[in-house]
Each structure stands twice: as structure tokens, then as C-alpha cells.
Amino acid sequence: MTRLAILGSTGSIGTQALDVVSAHPDMFEVEVLTAHSNYELLIEQARKYKPNAIVVTDERSYKLVKEALLLLPIKVFYGEDALVEVVKWDTVDTVVAAIVGFAGLSSTMAAVKAGKRVALANKETLVVAGELVMRAAIESRASIIPVDSEHSAIFQCLVGENMDKIEKIILTASGGPFLGRKPNYLVNVKASHALQHPNWTMGAKITIDSATLMNKGLEMIEAKWLFGLKNEQIDVVIHPQSIIHSMVQFVDGSIKAQMGLPDMKLPIQYAIAFPQRIDNTYKRLDFKEFSKLTFEEPDYKTFKNLALAKTAMFKGGNMPCVMNAANELVVHSFLQNRISFIEMSDAIEDAMNKVGYIEHPTMEDYIESDKEARIYAAEIVKQSQLSSH
Ligand code: NDP
Ligand code: MG
Q1: Residues in the 5 Å CB sphere of ion ligand 2
Q2: pTM listed for this prediction
Q3: How far out from the chain centre does Cα 326 lie?
């Protein structure tokens, strides 16, 4: 039995992780569930999966959950400090890190430091503090297994291989709902439009990141740390069908690809069952339904966020953290129609230019850079036409 702590259990990844648990009750047991504001779903999940403990980080929701579960033998805790504590428990084998954004950093880091197996969905953790997180993992002997589909693909391609035989990795990107569009079209797109992803159903933040291609930028940095790669070894190719989830090219020119229908339950299941590969009954890929798999170069000029992320990756230090913080703030504002699609890149670039560069940041530096970047990005949001109306 693998005892799981699922952080962010009410989210897109969290709920799908619970679906995997339901399909394999003989293999997985839920020890801890955590959520922020969706108390109704959390209460339902607690009644169904009977975890030993749950953590709620939104205060009002915490009170409601505590009251609703009063008669059940489930410990209910409040706040980020509790989040950091529960992941260290001896009764937790694997932590599914599926909180969205910078908010997931402290709990993921705590799980890594405690030497847990971490099924990592929260890519922002590695974007912000990849160097510190990977160093902590080596010290504590924690294993980090990727949930992100591209990284799961690469991880699967690397089983049985030597890391020093990798020539490069090729991350595939669907291109999102605005593939092929130019800036004159993008100026007018609204959040409701950007939320329509062609191939995947995901949380709101990552769906916007997919539309701007920031998601692929974050994934480049995530890959760099996960697999210990040089910046030059990371390539991106647009593959609109999302059948090849990513590839590894080896020193002899041979390329391995991992394929399947786009369904996040596969990489989630792979990460929590690893090193086993377990069965399921999900729909299989039929090549006859996909007679054409196509590939093209990303449009870095139109989708400026991808170029900015690449710049941040090459600059290193606190730059990816700054970029990530500004991005989180503008995506939130875009979802509220307070900044336009195109202006999001301007705000990120502005923050990257204004926050002081730190070559070897400490955790405190990251926390400070994150705060500063949000202040600069908020300034640009305030100046937006959309905010002043
Ligand atoms: P969702 O927005 O669907 O879910 C986010 C989860 O985090 C929810 O449980 C939410 O709680 C919780 N949460 C939000 N804010 C906080 C906070 N401040 N403190 C604690 N918990 C919080 O996101 P996704 O599931 O889509 O994504 C989760 C992570 O996985 C992201 O980092 C994303 O990039 C990554 N990922 C997601 C993929 C997907 O297919 N969805 C694919 C690959 C990676 P509540 O809802 O109760 O407020
Ligand atoms: Mg991905």
C-alpha cells in the first residue's frame, strides 16, 4: 500500500489523482488531502476517502470544513504551516504536489527535505527554486517523479538509459487555442476565449499559460532542473495533436518518443505507481484516427512569453522566479479582464527588467524577488486600459 498526501486535491490534477486511487484501492490509500477554498468538494472527498488528516489554507473554508467533519475521525488543520508539517509525517509515503503556483513551493520543498517520494505536478516549484529543490533532493534522497505529461514522457524515455548519453530533449507543445494567430488577432482575445484549450481540460492558470505558451517556457526550466540539462539541450516543437508527449534524442542520433491519447491520469498513475507500470481501462490510441502527426517551429515573436521564459532560463539566478511571479499576477488579472492578452508579456518583461538580478539566490531571496516582481507587474495592470474602465 502506498499512502498518499494529495496537496491541492480539489484541483484538476488533484481530482484526477483521486480517480486513479479509486481505480486501484488495493494499491493506494489517502492519508492526507489539502485544499484552499473549495470546501464543498473537499468535504465530499474527505467523506469518501476517509483520510487521516486534511489541511485547508483558506480561513473561512477551514471553519466550514471543520464543522462539517466534526463527527468523523479526521484531523482538520488550518494554514500553510500545517501544510508543511503534514508532508513530513511517517505515515506519508508519497506526496502528490498539485497546488498551483508559488503557493505550492514551501510544501513541496518540505516534502523533498523530508526525503519523500514526490509526484510533482507543481512545475512552478522548479521554475522558481529548481537549484535549491534538486540539491535538497540529493541530500535527503527524495525522489521526484514528474506528473507534467512532457516530463513524464521524457522520464519514461530515459528508463534504462544513461543521463550522459542525452544529446537533447524535445518538448512538444500543442500551441494552444491561438496557434497560427498573429498579434493583431490576439489584442482582442478575452479570458473566456483563452480558456478553451483544444486538447486538455486543466485548471484556469495553466490553461491561460498554454494559450500564451508561457506553459512551455515554464516546462523548459522545469526540464532543465529535473533532468540536469544544459540550456542548449532543451528544444520546443509545436505538435498540435498532442499525441507525442515529448522526446529524447541520444548521442547516436536515435530519438525515443512517448505517445498516447492526452489524458493526465496516465502520467499521474505512472508517477504514483513508479517503478511499477499498472493497468487501466482508459481509451487507447488508434493510429488510424490520427493519420497525420504534424510539427512546426514555435512563433516566438507572437508568443513573446515563450521568448521571455527562454531569456529567464539563460539568465538563471532569480530571473525565472521573477518571471514566474509576474506571470502569476498577470494571469490572475487577465482572468478578471483587467489586462489584455498582449499586455501580459509587457508586464512580465517590465518586472524582469526592474527586479535586481541575484546570481545565487537563497530561499529568502526567492521570496523577496517574488514579492517585488508582483509589485511591478501590478503597476502595469493598473495602467492597462482594461483596468481603468
Ligand atoms: P487547479 O487550479 O485546478 O487546482 C489547484 C489546486 O491548488 C486546488 O486544489 C486549489 O484549492 C489549490 N490551491 C490554490 N491556491 C492555493 C493556495 N494559495 N494554497 C494552497 N492551495 C491552493 O490547478 P491544476 O490542477 O490545473 O494545476 C496544479 C498544478 O499542476 C499547477 O502547477 C499546474 O501547472 C500543474 N499541472 C497541471 C496540469 C493539468 O492538466 N491540470 C498538467 C500539468 C501540470 P481550491 O480549489 O480548493 O481553492
Ligand atoms: Mg505539460
Answers
A1: 148-150
A2: 0.98
A3: 16
